[in-house]
Amino acid sequence: MKKDLTIFPGQGRELSTMLGVMDISVPVRKLVHRMEGHTAGISCLAVSPNGRVVATGSADHLAILWDLESAAPLASFVGHKAEVKSVAFSPDGRLVATGGGDYLAMVWDTVTCERVKTLTGHSSWVRSVVFSPDGRFLATGSGDRKVIIWDTDSGAKVRSFEIGSYTTAVAFSPDGKYLATGEWDTTAALWERVSGRRAMSFIWHDKEVRSVAFSPDGRYLATGSGDRTVAVWDAASGTMLRILTGHSSPVTNVAFSPDGRRILSGGTDGTIILWESETGRKEFSNAGHNGEVRGVAFTPDGEYYLTAGGDGVAFIWKTGSGEKVRGFSGHTTTVDSLAMAPAGDHDRLITLHSGGNAVIWDIETGEREISFTGDAGGITAIALSPDGAKLATGNDDATIVIRDSGTGGKIGSFAGHALRVTTLAFSPDGKWLASGGLDSAVFIHEIESGKRIGPLTGHRYWIRTVAFSRDGKWLATGSTDKAVLVWDTASGKRIFAFRAHRYPVTSVAFSPDGKWLATAGCDSRILLWDMATGGRIIDLLGHGADVTSVVVSSDGEYLLTASADGTAILWEMRSGAIVMRYEGGNGQFTSALFTRDERTVLAGSTDGVVRFWDRESGELLVVLHNLDDGFLWSAPPDEAASSGWFWTDRPSVVHVLRCKEDGTDPEVLAADATERSVHLELYNRKDIVMGRLNNPEKYQREVERIVGSIQASWLDTYGERLKIKQIVHQQKTSG
């Protein structure tokens, strides 16, 4: 039976979109959100022992149970304060364990949907959770270099292993006597559960081991690595039996089929490969996701397998043919990248989403102008020319397309990369375009002639960011290999190599005068470099997770950064001091920008929205929600709207609820209810929502004008509610 999903009472929350439905309350009552499906990308998955239910975790801090047959959500688990990074069923299916970015593991009852245990003991993200085969124990692996074994019934800590390296994965042997761990130091290991002794090390990979899995009979261990291979080992002797090669990017997940005859693997490039375990022969390969594969699992009968991707979608596939059966996801997709284009006296916003589509928005009206996808594969990178006339899109099929930003029409295209294009940047004069790819190559393309410089080689792994200096003489590139390289754009020769980041480099930006370079990475640091000497000037510390974006103000006095910790920070460059911190929502921030006048700061997020803040005060102004079609903007509550304002061309996505003062007993009003239509007339207001973003003074005057009317008119009788229609009509005719 389908269960009602958890209800979130609380006034002053942002409006949210969930599976095409946004729930808000009537005015002067508590705001109510009811979540159906994830509102951010899926991070992990597990299949129940009976094969009827799928559990997923997400960057929206939720774990959700889904009906495998219909792909309908059954129940949600609310408790983590950060991304749910791992999920597992107990052998009897009565419990689900989750591990989160909040350093916690939690245990949930699948019948009552209540949390029964909160396990504390880790000092970093809990990356892996797994029950022992008899269900008596739960093992958790973390970035704090520890594996902890817990008693499932009592929640007591039974044993803790000091691994010695960042723990990426944990798996119990089928007999429950051993634990296998994957480690960042390139090894996998076998541990005795009772004694905690390290029984064996598996050494062959030359990059981190990201995933481990036992065969059902316990004879073999499979390991997936950042070196793009899957290794199959004899679990008893530690002998490496075979290497499976075929992935073009790091292998993130591995799993054996229930009969042990197949191995399923997924990579950061979204590719899924099914192998014969005995021979290592590749049965077939699918480009299944527009983003890294974050989870793989077989159904208990082996007839199907499931995959979860960084694109926010989970798919069910038929094992024998590789045919995609169905998918399930949240309503929104991650906002991966942002760009601003001038349009007369106002801005146009371009958003790139994890589903591989890009959207151009009119920031003055709030309306969606154009939405487009790649010609032969999803869009994976965007860049806007300095004059705003051209939009470059990098694609999953390794091509680059130049488009007219006004129409989205194709102007030209470039080739050169062997794999997916991951990042793009125009030169300041708009004559050149730099590109980086999953193939670790960098190219510089001349827009008019199609002439190409490169490949610029020097990075060992895929390119995550490229940026020109303001005079166009230098190009900086950052990579998953942790290095930042600076090139002379005319000759393609390397000038500097900066190697101070401990984890992948995510973003680079030059100062306007070209005297320094800012670099950001997954080590949560922002580093400033002197371009005259190549020396490091300063380290900026203030984020608690990966720094995903760095932008320099036009005067070079300030730096704006976004982070997976769900914050954006404005820094003063001279002192390195934090000027303002911008927060909101449950997602991880993926990108940040200034508007052209630099009075407003905006950030894209994994929860599928773009937030706009006043730069000086840090006040949240409006939120843009990405719908499948149409548009939806929301503004926070104020004295005239206790549930906030919204502006949409799709009123069907708004559900108006009647509820008690404490937010309980919500009742969705019928689509044709008079109360609902009155509410929509009052609060679906383009002038107020877009005015709050573009003309704050006018917005404030409008709110003050109508506050008395709305508060005085919302009474409890049907007849009195009809008077509101007259007020709305008078406002429209007089204003």
How is this fold's topology laid out?
Layout: E1 7-9, E2 22-25, E3 32-34, E4 42-47, E5 53-58, E6 62-67, E7 73-78, E8 84-89, E9 95-100, E10 105-109, E11 115-119, E12 126-131, E13 137-142, E14 146-151, E15 157-162, E16 167-172, E17 178-183, E18 187-192, E19 198-203, E20 209-214, E21 220-225, E22 229-234, E23 240-245, E24 251-256, E25 262-267, E26 271-276, E27 282-287, E28 293-298, E29 304-309, E30 313-318, E31 324-329, E32 335-343, E33 346-353, E34 357-362, E35 368-373, E36 379-384, E37 390-395, E38 400-404, E39 410-414, E40 421-426, E41 432-437, E42 442-446, E43 452-456, E44 463-468, E45 474-479, E46 484-488, E47 494-498, E48 505-510, E49 516-521, E50 525-530, E51 536-541, E52 547-552, E53 558-563, E54 567-572, E55 578-583, E56 589-594, E57 600-605, E58 609-614, E59 620-625, E60 632-635, E61 645-648, E62 654-658, E63 667-668, H1 674-683, H2 686-694, H3 696-713, H4 718-734
Parallel strand pairs: 2-62
Antiparallel strand pairs: 1-3, 4-5, 5-6, 6-7, 8-9, 9-10, 10-11, 12-13, 13-14, 14-15, 16-17, 17-18, 18-19, 20-21, 21-22, 22-23, 24-25, 25-26, 26-27, 28-29, 29-30, 30-31, 32-33, 33-34, 34-35, 36-37, 37-38, 38-39, 40-41, 41-42, 42-43, 44-45, 45-46, 46-47, 48-49, 49-50, 50-51, 52-53, 53-54, 54-55, ...
Helix pairs in contact: 1-4, 2-3, 3-4
